[in-house]
Structures are given as C-alpha cells and as structure tokens.
Amino acid sequence: MAAPLEDLETQLERCIENLRQIRIIVSDFQPQGQNVLNQKIQSLVTSLQEIDKLKNKVQDIHVPLEVFDYIDQDKNPQLYTKDCIEKALTKNEELKGKIDAYSKFKANLLVELQKTFPSELNMYRAIRNQ
C-alpha cells in the first residue's frame, strides 16, 4: 500500500515544483521565455494527469478532516498524529485512574458488606462463582 502513496507523493512534489517554477517565470516574464513557460505548463498538465491516474489506487485511504485543519493553519500534518497520541495517553491515564478508584471502592465495599451482612455476602459469592 505504501507504493501508491509514494507515487502520489512524488507526483504531488513534481506538480508543486512545476507550479513554483511557473510562478517564477510568470512573475518576471520575458518574451524569450515563452517556450520554457509552455514546457513547464505541459509538464504541469502531465503531472496532473498522472495524479488523476493514481486516484483509484489511493481512494480507500481516509484522511481525518482535522489534518486539513492543521494544514490550513500552516502546521505540519504530522503534528496531528503527535497530538492524537498525546490526547490518547491523557485519556488513558484518566481512565486508568477511574478504574483504580472503582477497584478500591469495590474492595472497600466488599469489606464493609462482609462486616455488616456476612451471610448475604457469602451467598452472593457462592452464586457469583457458579
């Protein structure tokens, strides 16, 4: 699955580079540069056609919309993954704390129930172990 993504990345980089070069040529356009500009435009069209051919190979890949928000904010999209992992670790710590608290509560509850209702708790344990 990595090969189609790598091919797409390569084509996108080529397209971006062609656009960059076209921008430079157009911003300081000289009539003698028309042939070079035409070649760059043709190269851009070819790159876009290649990208279009690759779309079927990567159509099953889903990108979270938040990644595009990162890109729109001029952030590195790889920061999205880092942030997701940090959020997951934080949530994991919260849940672990809750699990520990409930485990302690259960243990204390069983101790108190054993003191207050010993026969009923023994019946409960017998039924639960069946």
UniProtKB/TrEMBL annotation:
GO molecular function, one term: transcription coregulator activity
Family matches, as InterPro entries: Mediator_Med10 (IPR019145)
PANTHER family to which the protein is assigned, alphabetical: MEDIATOR OF RNA POLYMERASE II TRANSCRIPTION SUBUNIT 10
GO biological process terms on file: regulation of transcription by RNA polymerase II
Cellular location(s): Nucleus
Family in the record: Belongs to the Mediator complex subunit 10 family.
Known role: Component of the Mediator complex, a coactivator involved in the regulated transcription of nearly all RNA polymerase II-dependent genes. Mediator functions as a bridge to convey information from gene-specific regulatory proteins to the basal RNA polymerase II transcription machinery. Mediator is recruited to promoters by direct interactions with regulatory proteins and serves as a scaffold for the assembly of a functional preinitiation complex with RNA polymerase II and the general transcription factors.
Subunit relationships: Component of the Mediator complex.
Protein name in UniProt: Mediator of RNA polymerase II transcription subunit 10
Species for this entry: Tabanus bromius
A single GO cellular-component term on record: mediator complex
Keywords attached to this entry: Activator, Nucleus, Transcription, Transcription regulation
